[in-house]
Amino acid sequence: MAKRMALVLLLMVLTVSAVSADEEAFIGVNIGTELSDMPHPTQVVALLKAQQLRNVRLYDADRGMLLALANTGIRVAITVPNEQLLGIGQSNSTAANWVAQNVVAHYPATNITTICVGSEVLTAMPNVAPVLINALKYIQSALVASNLARQIKVSTPLSSSMILDSFPPSKAFFNQTWNPVLVPMLKFLQSTGSYFMLNVYPYFDYIQSNGVIPLDYALFKPLPANKEAVDSNTLLRYTNVFDAMVDAAYFAMADLNVTNVPVLVTESGWPSKGDSNEPDANAENANTYNSNLIRHVLKKTGTPKHPSIAVSTYIYELYNEDMKEGPLSEKNWGLFDSDGKPIYILRLTDSGSVLTNDTTNQTYCSAKPGVDSKMLQAALDWACGPGKVDCAPLLQGQACYEPDNVAAHATYAFDTYYHQMGRAPGSCDFNGVATITTTNPSHGSCIFPGSDRNGSLLNGTIPVMDTKSASSPAMFEYMNAFSIANALIGALWIAVVS
């Protein structure tokens, strides 16, 4: 009997700590779509591959994105949009149809691992709160019926504003108004082995504290021991707001007698630009926060309360969303602009592989997708002529001939010129048809300038256009007024610098 009891206790311990044993801590990224020039799904996936981002969260279940993500191995969290929750929470069959169309139709080619049922529902759409539990259960039932319940977790992201008295963390508790929803929700998460999803924004905690929270404490910067925050009840020491907020969630769950549901941070980040009344929304602070956050998560040290439990986190967000409503800061949480150009170069030395091509400042010059093919051809002609780029590798039978289209050939020529000019400002423009990117365009035996020639190339894609480049090896036959003007400007420039 004693041995059997010991075995039961061991199994309980293993269940509680399953997240630390079965899953590695990961950094993912949220992909918002409120951009005036939203990249095509294939471009989004190319950027994810180049940055070695293996975990993404979508705010919907967009079919184009799910198809583009197929056969990539990227782990995908999809979302039931808030506006669909009432229907799903009131009808089991509606939930089953949603899962059939958005999950079963794509899995396993698309590696869907998580379904977020809504986003910050209790604070954003409190009128939907009464059906939230049913929505969770109906989605879960549909997964069970499809034999996918073991592969896909179901939960709902909540705002950290749900947690009251968050410091010291040991005193934290949930807004009791929502206990009728939170208690059954936590029981659901327990019974299904899912996560407590939490959006954590130290930026907002910092600006709302009126100077009580030091900026360095919000940014994960090293603090002297006498500046660390100490929980007087547990004597746990906190060196950053992020850990304190995650532990506040653990203590708030414990206040409702739930101690074995791990926290997954579904959003966290820092804006790179703000209005005049938000001076700390700037690129330096955004870089510092996100670089430190990534290192902190990937060290797998957990939090002071649970040092052995990973706190995987999705960064908010991949792209700046220029169509977002609200202050300027709302539009500037992205790591990249719509062309895939980094807003800032993350400082991630020795942090693993994710986003690490930014750490060496490897940038390339690529043809912009969707630009006029004649403009692109003219710019290609100039690069291979007055621009003095050796375009021999683009000839038929040579390493960079395939794919044989003007966009691919222009990208090679643009990038070569860009590196010949030492990546100087303005050397990747070509009258607006080129853009800087961190996606390495090398492919097969076609190695672009600036690439790692030792075989550790990042995955990249070449922009493809239907318009074919001239089949003749003489690539300088087509010179319109645009390229002639550029040739004259280039010749003058070369004469000056020579």
Distance between the termini: 90 Å
CATH domain topology of the largest domain: TIM Barrel
Q: Helix/strand/pairing class, anyone?
A: alpha/beta
User: Overall mean pLDDT score?
Assistant: 84
Q: Level of helix content?
A: 25-40%
How does this model look, in words?
- The protein is α/β, with parallel strands linked by helices.
- The chain has two domains: 13-358, Alpha-Beta Barrel (TIM Barrel); 364-497, no CATH class.
- Helices cover 35% and strands 11% of the residues.
- It has 16 helices and 15 strands.
- The protein has helices at 2-16, 18-22, 41-50, 63-68, 85-89, 92-104, 121-124, 129-145, 179-192, 202-208, 215-218, 241-255, 283-298, 373-384, 406-420, 481-497, and strands at 27-31, 55-58, 75-80, 111-117, 153-155, 158-159, 163-164, 173-174, 196-199, 229-230, 237-238, 263-268, 313-315, 364-367, 434-437.
- A nine-stranded parallel sheet has the order 5-4-3-2-1-13-12-9-6. A two-stranded antiparallel ribbon has the order 7-8.
- It is globular and about 70 Å long.
- The model is unreliable at 1-22 and 452-498 (pLDDT under 50).
- It holds the Pfam family Glyco_hydro_17.
- It is found in: Cell membrane.
- It catalyses: Hydrolysis of (1->3)-beta-D-glucosidic linkages in (1->3)-beta-D-glucans.
- Residues 363-448 form the X8 domain.
- One of its GO terms (molecular function) is glucan endo-1,3-beta-D-glucosidase activity.
Short characterization:
By secondary structure, the chain is of the alpha/beta class.
